[in-house]
Write a structure and sequence with these properties.
six-stranded mixed β-sheet
Amino acid sequence: MTDNTVGNVIVTADIQPNYELLEEQRGKMSSSDVYHFYRELVDEINKTLPPYKAIKRINIRENGFAMTTTGKVKRYGNFVEGAAEKGSPDFIEKKAEDRKHAKELIENIGKSIDPYLRYKDGRPITDIKHMFNSSVEIYGDRVAFHQKFNKGEEYTQITYKQAQVDVNGLGTALINLGLKGKRIAIIGTTYYQWETSYLAVTGGVGLAVPLDKELSAEELKNLVKDADVSAVLYSKKFEKIFEQIREDGDTSLKTLINLDIDENRSLRPLDSEETELKEKVRKRKDKNKEQGEEEHIIYSWKQLIEDGKNAIALGDRQFIDAEVLGTDPAVILYTSGTTGFAKGVVLTHRNIVDDLMMAPTILNVNPEDIFFSVLPVHHTYECTCAFLMPLYKGASIAFCEGLKVHNEKPSGDKADDAF
């Protein structure tokens, strides 16, 4: 198999699991458990093979193999003609429907005589993952984000390709934490960490649940419970709140991920005789603990990305090859609750990408444009118009450090010139 991303030929194992036998011998297994079971098996096989024959990737198939008349697996012919997706026949059929819908929408925009539809150079996109990955293909070396990682420093420029590497790493790590198909909340500052987390969650992990950073601890707990949230990615100021929610034990919240720390942290209290060195050893061990031990860990967004990158380097493509359909739920958005309790509204990928294809028809957005992101990104308007839509059109996003009003009048001779 030729890998266009690295420009060489690699050996791939195409595996169709016997799920009944696996469950009988090893108990109930998640999709991630199944993947890593075969990954470890392949690693053992690789030890007996010369390097040039080593299996670098594995694909877990859900559909059967095409067979010869003698009952053997065909050497060729196990991929559907014209389909880039390696999913089940049902998935391929639904994906074709997605492409048809997106193409028709763009064609209808082009044919429209509505005077408000002034710009008609959009491209068909089927889901958020497709939007971002296709933008990487088109605008890969252009800047996607301008981020100040430390207050007062110069902006760091992050290209589309660099951002994709981080998104793929984070998505892979989240799946390996057992979060495939789960509801995952995101809360905090409008910055690179928040937006790449959103792209990772919606890109093949689960449902994103953006939360309002102005809500009280009690309100946040109510939403975590209502949305059945299993994990939350948060800015550091919210750590105590979500530690307490997890500790209370009356929600599904198990996994805490801090967007601002550099390494995973253990929450176990130190005994009086325990040294700092012992704690460092314990932290390293915590990385390999079963999920049942998660109540003792705060994961680091930064370290998860590195863990995911390492897994991808070893052939882990669970996230990269994750199947996403336009009709799949993408996010749960909560209303402001001004007339009562906040209510969760489920939006599909198609709901969102249709807006992305329509929005630039009244505003001419170019790759040279820089969007200055000021509003909270959990707001639908900001998320659509100043986050996802610029990425769709190849523009870049600069994050505001904060808004402060300076009322002091300059002193000295420059005072009159300043006003």
